[in-house]
Amino acid sequence: MKFTVDEIKKLKLPAGKDDHTEYSDDVPGWLFRMRRTKKGANCYWQFEYAVGEARQTETVDEVGETKKGRKRRARRKLTYGRYPAMGVPQAREKAEKLHAETMLGADPQQMKEQNQRRAADTFEACVKRYLAWLKGGRHEAA
Q: How many angstroms separate the CA atoms of 10 and 137, rounded?
């Protein structure tokens, strides 16, 4: 499906399903996910991509023999926005950027996790300085 403003507005969760994902035809890995809630449905923009080295898959047939399958890389999904807060043009721009980064070998989910850890470290450091300032008297410069 080509994700356009009109096409996304038309999308509804299929009857009897609580979770449904549509895949973009024009940007590889670009997804639109809908999840049923008590108040209706939440919609998210996601990006799916492969990471790491390709590994040989194995299957076991009816006789119990192991057969080698295709080589596949592990897949990851990154949720990067909610619809309608992030519109189709902004989501497309972000998906194109994520696609380019993954083609160069980056792992967007890993970068997001690292940024969150750095933000937490920064906040923790500020709290420690503030508590030390409170404990030691407020006349010193923070």
A: 61
Q: What is the pLDDT of residues 81-115, one digit of tens each?
A: 999 999 999 999 999 999 999 998 889 988 888 88
pTM over 0.85: no
Give the distance from CA 84 to its chain's centroid: 17
Distances (CA, A) of 87 to 9, 21, 43: 10, 17, 11
In 1-102, at which residue ranges do the beta strands (DSSP E only) sit?
19-23, 30-37, 40-60, 66-83
- Nearest Cα to Cα of residue 100 among 30, 11, 32: 30
Distance from C-alpha of 25 to C-alpha of 71, rounded to nearest angstrom:
24
